[in-house]
Amino acid sequence: MAFGKRGFEKLEHERKRLENEETDVKKVLAANAYRIEWLSECMDWLRKVDEERHKIENLEKRYKERERTRTINQGQSCGLLQSSWCLDLKIRMKIKRIANLRKQIKLDTIRNQSAPALPDRFIKRGALKIDDFPSLNNYFDVLFLKLLVKDGRDKCARVCIWGPSGVGKTTVLENVHDRFCELTNTDQPFDVIFWVTMTEEKGVGDIQHILEKQLGLQADELMSNYERAEIIAKELENKSYLLFIDQVSSEIDLVRIGIRKGQHRMVVLGRSGCYYDDEIGERGESWKQEDIKIEGMCEDDALKMFRKIVNSNKDVMKNEEIKRIATLIVRECGGIPQSIKTVAFNLEKESDPAVWWAALSRFANS
């Protein structure tokens, strides 16, 4: 019965290997429960391991009982020999079963799947540069320094950038966003920077999808928005982050998205009006809001932007009469970059002063 002892020792060895594998799988699942696609298969494997554990314990108990009986009897009857042979056979079969069970779980695959290439935490917007336009660049400096000083540690911080439509809010926000994305690791105060552009159709789930994608989370399609919010909140719990939400026009409940009180966050909103109530609320959570109103470009910057666009056709701006009309048109634009760009693109190929006078007349009467 030499195999009996060898078999038991091998069974013990396989059991320990299975338990070590089980521990590793549980650790990976605990750290990445919402990042791997085949969670159900892993859980099923763990259930099988648990079932086998009870069967192994039963075999071990029977083996020890047999060895104790042998010692007492100082010999073996035919019945004991047959029982021992059956037990040894079951131990052999169990050893094979455990080895096969270990092969069923591909731990390296789980690790690779649960730790994919890190998502890009800083995705630039490709903002229109405003270095040549001091009146817009001043707003950039104010907002950038405000966020840099706070760097996410003011736990309930919100900045509202507001002003008329087309005044340059998005341009300023995109420049600040991209500048933070360009900071090196040693200078970067944030772990992740998000950008969300709102539309009438975009709801909580759409915003959550943007955050999930940048965080590398793989949400189950069957999950409710509430469940997704819990996962996002958990992922952001120990992160310092900056969230830009542009073109805000209606209420946004940040809690429903997964943005929670006590997290190290800065939220920057771009909207056409500034509201001092808690319209963009968090179910009673207190915000410390700061407001920056964008007034528009000064006349020199506005004219510079206009000429920069029209000068793509250099012959147009050689006409002195057109130069004078251009100045009058820019004044009618009131420092609104969107209006300036629209008119400039419409006139950049027009070399007839009469067309320019007509455009000025239409603009003045609109």
Classify the beta-strand content into a percent band. Answer: 5-15%
Helix content: 55-70%
**Spatial order of the strands in the main sheet?**
2-3-4-1-5
Shape summary? rod-shaped
Task: Give the CATH topology of the largest domain.
Answer: Rossmann fold
Average pLDDT over all residues: 80
How far apart are the first and last residues' alpha carbons, in Å? Answer: 104 Å
Uncertain segments are 275-285
Subunit organisation of the chains: single chain
Coiled coil: 1-69
GO molecular function, one term: ATP binding
Protein name: NB-ARC domain-containing protein
Domain NB-ARC: 148-314
Summarize the structure in short:
One of its GO terms (molecular function) is ADP binding. The protein has 13 helices and five strands. β3 (240-248), α9 (254-257) and β4 form a beta-alpha-beta unit.
Structure write-up:
With 366 residues, the chain is an alpha/beta fold. The protein folds into three domains: 2-114, no CATH class; 134-293, Rossmann fold, CATH 3.40.50.300; 299-365, no CATH class. 57% of the residues lie in helices and 10% in strands. The chain has 13 helices and five strands. It has helices at residues 2-32, 39-73, 78-104, 107-114, 134-150, 169-182, 204-215, 225-236, 254-257, 299-310, 320-333, 337-347, 353-365; strands at 157-162, 192-197, 240-248, 264-271, 288-293. A five-stranded parallel beta sheet has the order 2-3-4-1-5, with helices on both faces. Strand 3, helix 9 (254-257) and strand 4 (264-271) form a beta-alpha-beta unit. Helix 1 packs antiparallel against helix 2 (39-73), helix 1 (2-32) runs parallel beside helix 3 and helix 7 runs parallel beside helix 8. It is rod-shaped. Mean pLDDT is 80; it is low at 275-285.
